[in-house]
Fold these 4 entries.
Entry 1:
Amino acid sequence: MKRKILIIDDDIDMCLLLSKFLTRKGYETDTAHTGAKGIAKFKEAEYDIVLCDYRLGDKDGKDVLAELKAHAPHAIVLIITGYSDIKTAVDVIKLGAYDYITKPLIPDEVINVLEKAISQSGEQTGNEGEVAPASRTSAVNKSKAQNSEFLVGDAPSTKDLYKQIEIVAPTNYSIILYGESGTGKEVIAKTIHQLSSRADKPFVALDCGTLSKELAGSELFGHMKGAFTGALSDKEGHFELANGGTLFLDEVANLSYDVQASLLRVIQERKFKRVGGNKEMPVDVRIIVASNENLQDAYRKGKFREDLYHRFNEFSINLPPLRERKADIDLFAHFFLEKTKAELNRELDGFDEDVLEKFRQYSWPGNLREFRNVVRRCVLLTTSGSIDASKLPWEINNPATPLGTPVTEQPVQQVAMPVNTSINDLKNASSKAEYETILSVLKKVNFNKTKAAEMLNIDRKTLYNKIKSYEEMNKINEQN
């Protein structure tokens, strides 16, 4: 049975190219050129995966993502974005996107991400599950499967992190994990679970950031058939699924106040009712929560219940960002390299030294998740030998901000549109001014030619023709 993919992109040419490529690869595709039409199509039919551009004419990708997730919480959505939007990409994953694909699109990478998403669609996976540091203790090393996934670094902050994990893991304390997106909060939660007496019981993760107020109760506590429109059968909630084990609630601060109250009652009484049910069921779970926001600050602002915060705050752990773990950079580079080589069946020699140096100096706003994706992309682009700096994304080769500062405004790609400025005539001056105007607008809209044409008050065809003329002019200049 062919997998069905919905492509949402306001660039008609991009939709056509992606559709033809994926069709040749055995997928069935459908397209929409606005966010609203994409959402409507998604609600009318069943799709295995949605490929959605972040910058659409009528909506942002995060708005489309939110509506898709509200309709189908387990939908697999991949966001297409430019490297200059890396912080945005991290944010949409936090909102529930499965992954992101960066422009310019590389066919092998698109297929690789799609196949990975499909293969894991039936599994219980989390946002940071791919990046898997873990403890060196015997409790973890007893599993060969775990050994292939885990890595502990040498940075002082990393060692301190795992000392805390070893201390708290054997207890039943509730834990708050703080850390930037991509630092591996779910992986740390899994590690704590595996080092606890509950290791042979379920570990269940729930991303609260993707839940609407209406869905949260059902996802947490389950529901009975007929409890609300669309409740066609009884459903187990995450508390039920995790009974005896560990429940990990990511981005817990996003839960509504009403749901927080229900959650507090369950934690206090260790009993719950399914939505629409009358029977109280006992539950025994260890709760680990994660948040980008300090929950103490959140309750002081009235966004989070103070009593619930104190229930969770029996122990808290701060996960250091990658930029504060410079001693781990080389270790993770080779760790991700070996995993990707095995994944893609590539034989490579490693990294050039200047590549490793660039890794050490880069700020890594997306932390371990971003690092993993950069290495995977480099491996895709390198067929033999070692990985050189030409395979790195633009912002790593051209750091515009000091270490520790997120990269936000950098071009996705360079457009070859130089103008011959050696002849100081009026016609050339006019061409140069026109070129600079077009390039400036392209940079503002992240090289989205549809939006650029709108801002320049010309149609897309005219814009493409002008770009083509500049490229032809450049070829003539080079020949001369």
Entry 2:
Amino acid sequence: MQVNKQIKRILLKLSGEALLGKKEFGVDPGVLIYMAKEIKSILDLGTQVGIVIGGGNIFRGEGLAESGIDRVTGDQMGMLATIINALAIQDALERQGLVARVMSALKVNEVCEDYIRRRAIRHLEKGRVTIFSAGTGNPYFTTDSAASLRAVEIEADLLIKATRVNGVYSEDPLKNQDANHFETISFDKFISKNLKVMDTTSIVMCKENNLPIRVYDINIKHALLDIVQGKNVGTLIT
């Protein structure tokens, strides 16, 4: 992928924790407004935007399993949490004058559409922000894996992972200030170093489908716009 090439279609992966803002639980309305404005800036360029959202600000299946809840039940609870977050993002986008659709891997027809690949692509082609919720619809798969899967299915040019740090480091820079930052890193090197920014399943899927990943700090204003315009922001995994 050429760095100076403008991106036509992206899949943006947001963690549930990103929606916390300064809250300890739930959704910070200020973060929703901020993200909606960031997304609007790239839609105004004509970029098609798909979003996968996590649910860690409400429930995290793996964490619940550690406390004794059945893992499958915990993951199902987590999937429902992603639907709550998706509806919150949809509302924030609509308040910015955008058109957004929530699609779910689980059947919740009263509040959102079922995920159907061809319909999702049609939404994107019509300029609608398409939010993919409920992960893959299966337990034991993270929303990172769901992001890679949906990105491949909708033929995105780039998977963008929003985190709390600006890219991929040799160690967690929030814990070790001497951690090395990677401007670019290969899929194989990412896997061999056992880096934790995304799970291995999602990385392998992107590698097999030649889908580059850009990791950036969600708190940097206009970074999303810079990425879509082909600028070097964060880390490129390719």
Entry 3:
Amino acid sequence: MWLLVGTVDEVKKKKKVVVTTDDGTKILVLAHNDNFFAMDNMCIHREREMHTGVILKDKLICPGHQWAFDLRTGWESVKEQAQPTYSVRVSDNIVEVDAASRNVATSPN
């Protein structure tokens, strides 16, 4: 189920956009280095909202305890756990996230 996030320019300008699915799940969509990424907005560790975190070296740093999640895979290398991620696409200058594509990595690749 593809959800509208916004136009490419809107998402790039905001850098972080949270969309809500029909069941109330909040998905964070990020614009970074001309790419788009998506993951659960609630951290798997302490349930902090990830949209308040910062991006550093292609990782989203959780504002709660500084776990560093890879933007592509959601993998956190120190704790060897993963934040769930989602597929993102751009079609006709519109960014969309697939709420049905939730994936939890079991390794760093």
Entry 4:
Amino acid sequence: MPVASPTQRSTHPQLPAGFRFGTSTAAYQIEGAADEDGRGPSIWDTFCAEPGRIADGSSGAVACDHYHRYAEDVALMRRLGAGGYRFSLSWSRIQPTGSGPANPEGLDFYDRLLDCLLEAGVEPMATLYHWDLPQPLEDEGGWLNRDTVDRFADLAALVGERFADRVAHWIPVNEPNVAMMLGYGTGEHAPGWRLLFDALPVAHHLLLAHGRAAIALRAAGATSIGCANNHAPMWPASDDAADVGATKLFDALWNGMYVEPMLLGRYPVDLAPLMEDLVADGDLATIRQPLDFYGMNYYNPMRVAAAPEGAEMPFEFRELLGYPTTERGWPIVPDALREYLITMRARYRAALPPMVITESGCAYSTGPDDHGVVDDQARIDYLDAHLRAVATAIQRGVDVRGFYAWSLLDNFEWAEGLTQRYGLVHVDFETLARTPKRSFQWYADVIAAQPQHAG
């Protein structure tokens, strides 16, 4: 592990002793091996096969080939010195049809990965659902079908029994708001439905799946269960009452609809009338399971305006001016992360468990130069500023326990295909060669400079 000099220490963000630094990935984005060892098709395999769905026509069929190269990738984690690794389990690899007996070869892969991580001193954080629903379940209605919640609870019991002895932290569902809104609301992600407000049952079923999985995991011996909710500060486009009202509504749909049921056992007051026909007796108590940590995925604020009369939806999005952007076009506003963390603490107080930033990162396409160096200074600047924002929030009294950078590797970035690179490690998608970027070494230096590493 790199050892920072005292001079270097003073130039890096400083987090409290015991703060956990990690990296994040997702199964469909890195594993590849789509047709190997009994894995069944997922909604993303189907979606990628439909012309025009993916920006560059690519898919996750090979991705980073992590399925075969996991030992090399874990060796990179050891070199990085990060104490945590957040990854997801491929439901289609474990249960090819989404139900029934487990696929032994799928379970064996995650056995090998977990043992390799632990040998490297890296603490596993496993996500059960990172958007790759088995296609046979989608054929039965997917997350519009309440029966899918039962299938997910079965999956949680199965993997809990197998892996709870080695997985330190569990996240049942990654970003249920994104899965609902982009997958079923606007159709930009798999399975590609464009249902608009008729997608609301998906939100309830994903929340219910979160609760049912948490119960099953605890029964199997899991001791640390959280979430990974995507949160974005919502800023009105103007002070006009229509813009403020549209912003309040979208804030409830994007943020409140997930945090309030999980922490308070209720839907936001503005949305409750839309949800009441979906909520059966006991559902909200099931969703409100005790959480050991509250995971927040953060990328950027959104600027919201009222849509013109007659529009499909009552809100629309405006460019956030005056801020630099990533290559994805997303504004870089680290201070909004600090502000949101402080707001979460003020709003939810005793109901809010310790927080973890379960994802944050940026897209820049910088590749190796003639000397093989990937000089991604823009990513260093992004991570530095966001870690400092977290440090400031902690100084203001917010209990934040960790930061997981998205992502360890350049990977298949959903509808953007292979066109957006978020990794600390560059992946040549032709040769699959890994090249740690300058940001990788910077992150290693930051970790080494923290109090628990100080000599």
